[in-house]
Amino acid sequence: MTNFRTEQRVGKGAVAIILAFWGFLVILPFLWMFLSSFKTNAEISQMTTNFLPKHWTLDNYKNLFISGNFGQYLSNTLIITAFSFVGMFFNAMAGYGFAKFNFKGKGFMFIAVLSTMMIPGQVTMIPVYLILNQMHLTNTLLGIILPGLAGAFAIFLFRQFMSTISDSILEAARMEGASEWYIFWRIVIPISKPVLAVQGILTFIGGWNSFLWPLIIANDQKYYTLSVGLQLLQGQHTSDYGLQMAGSSFMVIPIIIIFLIFQKYILQGFNVQSEK
């Protein structure tokens, strides 16, 4: 028995060492990028063996907002991300409707929603662009926001989770005189916290990293997002590596922070989904 426990500890220790080493290799490029954002451009160009900056500087981040116009790009990205969360609750409403209401054509409509997941987004971009052009919404923030408010995957995810909520709880609330709006916000949404955590992080990442659609729909830099601005920065400042590292770090760090804060709820949400 003692030998078995010793073997288990040795095995777990070996796995931990391998995972730690692999994790270090994965995070190493991001760490180098972040530290390089505090180096001068001359120091990066020299390709020295120093991992840490010799002379720490914030000039790259200052220039990012002064010459790179990242303040405007950040504002646009935050607006788009905020409306993406509004769209997430629209998707939650649709998922709740498919899960708990019976209406004519429900099965066909749900299959139609799911079928859109098989169509690449690039295929629908031109028709959506033409529709928004007819509505005079091209080159506007509203034109960037509208197509992302609804998503088949999010509706499917909410529907699958909400279908497991006991009908007796909802019926009891209705018998007490609760409205459907009250039931949705005060009962269904609190129960759905695990799936909301999963969809919330996916929504944030999607809004924060939005690139292709804003690039297509907007031809004015004042409507560009951070991803588009970063690509523009790389084209305009090809030799300013410090500025590029600062821009890349500014894009990546918030996502890492959000994940570290909410990883417990995210993993719990995925576990709930797998168990269902």
Description:
By secondary structure, this protein is mainly alpha-helical. The protein contains 14 helices and no strands. The protein has helices at residues 2-36, 41-45, 59-66, 70-100, 106-115, 121-134, 141-145, 152-162, 167-175, 180-191, 193-208, 212-217, 226-236, 241-275. Helix 11 runs antiparallel to helix 14. The longest helix is centred in the N-terminal third of the chain and has 35 residues, at 2-36. The mean pLDDT is 85.
Rg on CA atoms, Å:
24 Å
Order of helices and strands: HHHHHHHHHHHHHH
- What would you say the CATH architecture is? Orthogonal Bundle
Portion of residues in helices?
over 70%
Give a count of the beta strands, DSSP E runs of length 2 or more: 0
CA distance, first residue to last residue: 37 Å
CATH superfamily: MetI-like
CATH topology: MetI-like fold
Number of helices: 14
Strand content: under 5%
Low-confidence spans: none
> What spatial form do the alpha-carbon principal axes imply?
flat
Number of domains: 1
Mean pLDDT: 85
CATH top level is: Mainly Alpha
The biggest sheet amounts to: none
What would you call the structural class? mainly alpha
